[in-house]
Write a structure and sequence with these properties.
- The structure holds 2 protein chains of 2 kinds.
- Chain A contains 9 helices and no strands.
- By secondary structure, chain A is mainly alpha-helical.
- By secondary structure, chain B is mainly alpha-helical.
- Chain B has one domain (3-222): MetI-like fold.
- In chain B, helix 2 (17-43) crosses helix 7.
- The longest helix of chain B has 31 residues, at 136-166.
- The chains are: A mainly alpha, B mainly alpha.
- Chain A binds chain B through residues 1, 66-67, 69-76, 78-79, 81-83, 85-86, 89, 172, 176-180, 182-183, 190, 193-194, 197, 201-205, 207-208, 210-211, 214-215, 218-219, and chain B through 58-59, 62-68, 70-71, 74-80, 161, 165-169, 171-172, 179, 182-183, 186-187, 190-193, 196, 199-200, 203-204, 207-208.
Chain lengths: 239, 239
Amino acid sequence: MNQPDFLDVISFGPGGWGAALLAGAWMTVLIAISGFLIGSIIGTFGAWAKISGGRTIRAIADGYTTVLRGIPDLLVIYLFYFGGSAAVTAIGRFFGSEGFIGFPGFLAGALAVGITSGAQQTEVFRGAFKAVHKGEIEAAIACGMSRALRFRRIIAPLTLRHALPGMGNVWQVVLKESALVSITGVAELLRQAQVGAGSTGMPFNFYVVAGAIYLTISTFSGALLQWSERYFSRGVRRN
Amino acid sequence: MDWTFTLETFISLVAAIPLTLQLAATSILLGAFLALGLALLRLSGVRVLDWFARFYVFVFRGTPLLVQIFLIYYGLSQFPAVRHTMLWPILREPYWCAVIALTLNTAAYASEIIRGGLVSVSHGQIEAARACGMPRFMVFRRIVLPLAIRQALPGYGNEMISMVKATSLASIITLMEVTGVAAKIISETYRAIEVFIVAGVIYLTINFLLTRLVHVVEYMLSPHLRAPRLRTPVQGESK
C-alpha cells in the first residue's frame, strides 16, 4: 500500500486535514447550539400551551409533539432545505429575480433540528413544571408577586432545575442529529470527514476520527451538564 | 394542494413501505439478541466483560448513527483484506450495511433498557424460584426473563419507534425506502411540502400501529395487574 501515513493526513500541517476537521467540529457545535436554543424557545411556548392554553392551543401543541416525534428527523431536514429553497425562489421571483435561489444549509439545518428538539423539550419542560411544588407558586401569589415576577423568580428557576436532566438528554440527541445536516452540504464535522475521505481514499480513518470527535464533544458537554445540574440543585436537601 | 401529484406521490411512497419495515424489523430483531447479550455482560460480574459492554454502549450511543453507517459502508471497503474475505458479498450491499449499522446501534440503546428490566426483578422472586429447586438457567428462562421483558416493554416500544425513524438514514446510502423515495421526488420536483406530508402520514401510521401493538403485548403480558373480570350476577341469584 502506498498510501500516505494517516497521522500526516490528519495533522495540522500543510496538506493535513486537522484544521478542516476542527473547523467542522466547531460548525457542528454551532449547529447543535442554535438548534438546541431554537428548540428551547419552542419548548417553552409548547409547554405553556400544553399547561395553560385553551382547547385549540392545546390541541395544536399536542399535534405538534405527536407529529414531530413520529417522523424521521431526516425528513424534516429535507422539508426545510428543499422547501426553504422553493419558498426563497418564489419570493425572489416575486421581486423580479430570475432563476433558482438556494436556502442556506446552516439555517435549514438549525431550524430543522430546532423544530424536532422543540417537540422533545416541550415534554421536558411540561414534566418539569409539573414537578414544581404547588405550594411554592401559592406562596409567591400570597407574597403579592405579579405574574411576570412569579414566572421570573419562582417558576422559571424551579422548572429549570427539574428540566436540566431531560435537557441534557435532548442536547445529546441534538448533537448527534446535527450530523444529518451534512446532507445540505454545510461544512460541519461529518461533511468535512466525507470530503477528506473522498480525496484521500481513507474513509475508515476519517470516519473513526469524526466519531472520536463526536464522542469527545458529547463527553465534555455531558460533564458540563452534570456540573450545572449540581450547581442548580445546590439548595436541594439530600439524604 | 395538487391532488393528482399528491396521489402519485402516495402511490410511489407506499411501494417503498416494505423496505422500511424490513429494515426496521430485521435490525430490531437482531438487535434484541445482541442487546440481551450486552445486558448479560454488564450484569455478569466479570470486570472485563462488564467494561467491554460499557465501552460498546458508550461508543454507539455517543456517535451519530450516520457516522456508524458510513464507517461500515464506506469505511470497511478501504481495506483490501476485507474485500477478499467471504464477508465481502454482504459488506458491499448497502442493504446489509444498513442492517448491520442499525442492529449495532439499537443493541446499545436496548441493552440499557433490558438491563433496567433485569435489575428490576425482585430478589424474592429469584429466591422463591431457587427454593423450588430450579437450576440457574431455568430461573433465568422462566422467572427473570419474562418479568424483565414485561418491565422493559414500554421503554423498548420507544426504542422500536426510534428504529423505524432511523431506517430513514439508509436512504443516504442509496436505499430506496420511504425517505429515499421521498427525497428523490422532492429533489426532482422541489415540492417539499406535499411530499413531506405524504411521507409524514406514512411514518405516523407505522408508528401509531407499532405503539398499539406494543400496548396489546403489554396487556397480554400483565394479566395479574388487571382487575379480575367480575362475574355478572345472574338475575334472581341471591347475594
